[in-house]
Amino acid sequence: MCRALGVSRSGFYAWRRRPELSRRGLENRALLVKVREIHEASRGTYGSPRVFASLRIRGELVGLNRVARLMRREGITARAKRRFRKTTDSAHS
Predict the structure, then answer these.
(1) pLDDT tens for each residue of the chain, 93 residues long
(2) Which of 22, 48, 50, 73 is geometrically suited to a Cys-Cys bond with 68, CB 3.0 to 4.6 A?
(3) What is the pTM of this model?
(4) Calpha distance 93→88 (Å, rounded)
């Protein structure tokens, strides 16, 4: 990968170890902790709209798209509902 991008391996690993310095990056990291907390409290059933609503109730000023983007990037997804299965055949003769 480094060869394809024209970057030295040592430079790549130095970049990975470098601390996050931007204000937005630090805010995203703190927000992600809260998102995970809400998602785990819902036993994995909340998706981004409900996590967003919970954050707003807590007083966090965030947008739905930002919450969705962070959840997508971290692989946090809502557990899908079970599909309804009809188990009774009421059309018998």
Answers:
(1) 888 989 999 999 998 888 878 889 899 999 999 999 999 999 999 999 999 999 999 999 999 999 999 999 999 999 988 888 888 877 777
(2) 48
(3) 0.70
(4) 14
Phi, psi of 81 (to 5 degrees): -70, 150
Spatial CB neighbours of 34, under 8 Å, sequence gap ≥ 6: 55, 58, 60
Residue 67 CA to residue 49 CA, distance in Å, equals: 8
**Rounded to an integer, what is the distance from CA 56 to the centroid of its chain?**
16
Instruction: Tell the residue number behind the tokens 């170890």, with chain if given.
Output: 17
For residue 57, the tally of other CB atoms under 10 A from its CB is 9
CB-based contacts of 67: which residues, under 8 Å, 6+ apart? Answer: 31, 35, 48, 51, 52, 55
